[in-house]
Amino acid sequence: MIKLGELNSVNAARLFADYCVTQGWSVQAVVEEAEVTERAALYVDEQQLHQVSQALEAFLQNPAHPRYHAAAWQRSELAAGSASLWSGLQFKAFSGPVTLLVLLLALLVYGWQQIAPQQASAALGIFLQPGAIHLAESWRWFSPALLHFSLTHLVFNLMWWLLLAGQFERRLGSGQLLSVALSSALIANVAQYVLVGPYFGGLSGVVYALFGYFWWAGRLNPAQGLQLDKGLVAFMLIWMVLGFLDVLWVSMANWAHLGGLLAGCGWAWLLRHKPGRPD
């Protein structure tokens, strides 16, 4: 997608974008520092640039025309049944094959842990002899991401995974999500293992990688459509800091969180020129 222009009214930009969607055009209104400048950028599929440009000219001449408000109403009705659980995460729910596969694996592993907890942890944790090279057990550097030690731990991580990974996969594809998930799991798990030890687990390192990606992609390439509300960014960063301060009621894999976060930010920089797929 390419940038069509900017409007000095966020509401007007969203109104026009809603109208375009009802016409079958891929148009997004991306807020750019709305609390300071009240501006929003319009991004459009390059193949539809001419049509949307003409429509924008007509809109600017008469933004109060009933057809635009009717389109916004129609758009809101279509979205009413599938609103996001957290309005700060500005995206639609979606689950691709990689998103669903990880969800299924995490659920199966958790079921295994309820039946044979010691066996599951021994099979998937990073328990290696010091100084030895275990190529035959290389999965252990990734598999701790599937271990969860309480239902709350599992549900919290999977909710974030579905919301972030689903949107990422829809925008950038299954292969890209798989690359980010595997690399961030490796970095997060190695960091936690080397700096603390083998007794940890959870998908939160990968979740923090996706969080880091959304956080920085929103700055580096807003046209990808992967952004987070500033309140949620603050929450996730404060949550991680509180984990390092050890003032929470839960034990957290803090270095896995930090490793995942840095990995996700790195991926956002590497893919800063990659276009996102339209809605």
Brief overview:
The radius of gyration is 21 Å and the shape is elongated. It has helices spanning 10-22, 34-37, 49-61, 66-80, 97-115, 117-124, 151-172, 174-195, 204-220, 230-245, 254-270, and strands at residues 2-7, 27-32, 39-44.
Structure, described:
The chain has 279 residues and is mostly helical. The protein folds into 2 domains: 2-80, Alpha-Beta Plaits, CATH 3.30.70; 97-270, Up-down Bundle (Rhomboid-like fold). 59% of the residues lie in helices and 6% in strands. Helix 1 packs across helix 4 (66-80) and helix 5 crosses helix 6 (117-124). The longest helix has 22 residues, at 151-172. The chain starts with a strand and ends in a 9-residue tail after the last helix.
Bin the helical content: 55-70%
| CATH architecture field of the largest domain | Up-down Bundle
**Using only CA atoms, what is the Rg?**
21 Å
Q: In the CATH scheme, what's the topology name of the largest domain? A: Rhomboid-like fold
Low-confidence stretches: 76-93
Total of helices: 11
Taken from the alpha-carbon principal axes, the silhouette is elongated
Structural class: mainly alpha
